[in-house]
Amino acid sequence: MTTHKIGVIVSSSRPTRIGDKVAQWVASLAPEGTEVDVIDLAEVDLPFLAEPEQPATGNYSLASTVAWSERIRAYDGLVITVPEYNAGYPAILKNAIDSLHAEWNGLPVGVVGYGWGAAAGAARQLGEVLDRVKAVTLPGPGLSFGQDLTPEGEILEAAPTDDVRGLFEQVLTAARQSVTV
């Protein structure tokens, strides 16, 4: 049986963020036998659209972009944990997506939003961008403050554990299908 490698992305860099707690909880729900890494975009530290050429060329010259490309290519799929900021998603995540091009094509990407209103606006906008870069977009559950988690990032009993597990299964199924195509 092939072990699949899935990245779980922390897509907030705010000093008071709870994204690391959400991502760790999501990662803990991966099926047994799945290799899971938590990727913190604050640690990836990509400069803002700094490549001299368009990402579509694939000619990356900055060490940070080359490392980011290699890292994303190493995964069979991703799950992005995304907060909602003013009805959108964080700029650091947009930059991480826009810094690459071909790496997203066909990559299964699940989305778990969190915040007031379960980050529905952010997840919708992110889905549009992921569709544009030709990722295999797999919408997942949203976590609402007061129902599924606290504003401090503590996961509550009502959190959609089974839905997150189901999202992992969708990501893994899509990863297996992309290998056989």
Please give a handful of descriptors for the protein shown:
single chain; 181 residues; alpha/beta; 5-stranded parallel beta sheet; FMN_Rdtase-like_dom
Question: Would you kindly provide a written description of the structure presented here, covering whatever features stand out?
Answer:
InterPro entries: Flavoprotein-like_sf, FMN_Rdtase-like_dom, NAD(P)H-dep_reductase. This is NAD(P)H-dependent oxidoreductase. It comes from Oceanitalea stevensii. Residues 5-148 form the NADPH-dependent FMN reductase-like domain. This protein has 181 residues and is of the alpha/beta class. It contains six helices and five strands, in the order E-H-E-H-H-E-H-E-H-E-H. It has helices at residues 19-28, 41-44, 63-73, 91-98, 120-132, 161-180, and strands at residues 5-10, 35-40, 77-83, 108-115, 136-144. Strands 2-1-3-4-5 form a five-stranded parallel sheet, with helices on both faces. The longest helix has 20 residues, at 161-180.
